[in-house]
Design brief:
Layout lengths: L2 H7 L21 H7 L5 H11 L5 H29 L3 H9 L5 H34 L5 H19 L3 H29 L2 H5 L6 H16 L18 H29 L13 H4 L2 H32 L6 H21 L4 H26 L8 H5 L15 H16 L15 H4 L3 H15 L29
Length: 488
């Protein structure tokens, strides 16, 4: 068996330590189904409906939003994924080189906590999809107990899949891509025949402000994947094409986001209540025939399992970079328990699912964006990473800087985060600068966070980039305490 075949068939056993060159046999084309799988979510249908109902956009404006948003957000995901090729380590491990061994704990902690919310949203959506399948297929109506049972099943399945590692996730994503593509074509065909297109095409156009705001809302979901981007590119060889990394990332996301958002916008013309439904998926049974709805939702459940598995996969690495000396599956189990608890609250208490979801997205995007600005700006001057320095968390590390902190990176991140929140409006929080200015009006607080943090980092004096260890230092030869098993 070839090395490539062995790598693809085996469970992942590596933790956060950089991957040795001889194991880096992945191909850039594998990123395409990975990012398809990361977007197979019926939430995109509901968000597409909100373009018509909440933002009052017409079909052509919705088309612009659905096309531009994944290019913007997943373009950033692809660009920062190049760092994985350079450093062969997960994103939050590479972040040590930018923020310092101690300084990295600040954004790392916030990003880890933010992942809890993202995983909770996906778990709740998956549970709603299961409830809809039970209702449509077997006539079993939802109740409080059944809500919790479906949520529990979804979280357990997510935990099981994430324990298999990157190889299994990517294989599942490839098969899910084919299935989802087939049934998406069926749904699109059904809508094309049964939609009142004259009503759709005669919708009035929304304002430019609403159009830009809508792009920001749809793009915010992709921004949340940016810190995880290197996690899925670290097995690529150093010679992998950077253009191919970006192209496959944007292409994989766009081929799902575009049709799903448009489908939601078209559905909303006949069923406007779906944009504010407390259950974001049950409306499919009122629009599509049973023979399409049930298998489509089953595939969507698989997609949402993949989304959560990818998120928990990255969350396990983040926990390890924060200093948890535990195997990755134990770190994943912590996220699973939290998702179950928060998901129960959201399903049983939250009165407006989409309101909570959009509020969460706006806050989440700012938290990820400040890190993105600093890390992305650092990539302009850092073409490689020192494997030994990444693994050495003590004072002898070349990435110790000043008492374990890079002052320029930490200050830029903190100022960018606060600035972004000041321009942000949500159900949970309204910043003091969120009104009476273009950034606040367009809901672009997350973009402000990227620009401000990145610009500050470029301007502030920074510690010199240390020369990597000698070539004799094998990338996989890391400190013993960093070798945390990654499998169940």
């Amino acid at each position: 068996m070839s090395k490539t075949a062995a790598r693809e068939s085996a469970l992942e056993t590596r933790g956060i330590e950089p991957v040795p060159d001889h194991e880096r046999t992945a191909r850039t084309r594998g990123l395409f189904p990975t990012w398809v799988g990361a977007n197979i979510s019926v939430l995109l249908l509901t968000m597409g409906a909100s373009l018509v109902v909440s933002y009052h956009l017409n079909f052509w404006q919705a088309l612009v939003v659905a096309g531009v948003a994944p290019v913007v957000s997943y373009g950033l995901v692809g660009l920062l994924g190049i760092a994985g090729k350079r450093g062969a380590a997960p994103g939050m491990a590479l972040s040590r080189a930018v923020f310092g061994q101690r300084g990295n704990l600040l954004p790392g902690s916030l990003i880890w906590v933010a992942r809890w919310g993202w995983e909770t949203i996906n778990a709740v959506t998956g549970a709603y999809a299961l409830l809809t399948i039970l209702d449509l297929g077997l006539g079993i109506k939802a109740n409080g107990v059944l809500d919790m049972v479906t949520l529990l099943l979804f979280v357990i399945a997510t935990f099981a899949i994430s324990g298999l590692g990157i190889n299994a996730v990517q294989k599942c994503s490839k098969y899910a891509t084919y299935l989802f593509g087939v049934f998406s074509v069926l749904v699109l065909g059904y809508l094309a025949v049964h939609t009142h297109w004259s009503k759709v095409m005669h919708q009035g156009a929304g304002s430019t402000a609403s159009l830009i705001t809508a792009v920001g809302m749809i793009a915010a979901g992709g921004v949340s994947w940016i810190p995880s981007a290197p996690d899925f590119t670290r097995y690529l060889p150093r010679t992998a094409s950077s253009k191919a990394i970006v192209g496959n990332t944007v292409g994989g996301a766009g081929i799902v986001v575009l049709p799903l958002v448009l489908m939601g916008a078209v559905m909303a013309v006949g069923t406007p209540d779906l944009a504010s439904a407390s259950d974001p998926v049950s409306f499919l049974g009122t629009i599509l025939p049973l023979w399409i709805t049930v298998p489509y939702l089953l595939i969507a459940v698989v997609g949402m399992l993949l989304i959560n598995s990818m998120s928990m996969y990255s969350a396990g690495f983040t926990a390890q970079t924060l200093g948890f000396k535990i195997p990755r599956h134990w770190a994943v189990s912590v996220n699973a328990v939290i998702s179950l608890a928060l998901g129960g609250v959201l399903m049983l208490v939250a009165t407006s699912f989409m309101g909570s979801f959009i509020a969460f997205l706006s806050m989440l995007a700012v938290a990820f964006s400040a890190w993105t600005g600093v890390f992305g700006a650092d990539m302009f001057r850092r073409k490689e990473y020192d494997a030994r320095a990444l693994a050495d968390t003590g004072r002898t590390s070349a990435y110790w800087y000043q008492a374990g902190f890079s002052p320029a990176a930490v200050a830029s991140w903190a100022i960018g985060l606060v600035s972004g929140l000041m321009f942000t409006t949500s159900d949970w929080f309204t910043g003091p600068l969120a009104k009476n200015n273009l950034i606040g009006e367009y809901g672009l607080g997350w973009i402000a966070a990227i620009v401000i943090s990145g610009a500050l980092y470029l301007l502030l004096p920074k510690p010199a980039v240390p020369a990597p260890a000698s070539a004799s230092a094998e990338p996989g030869a890391v400190a013993a305490e960093e070798r945390v098993p990654a499998t169940v």
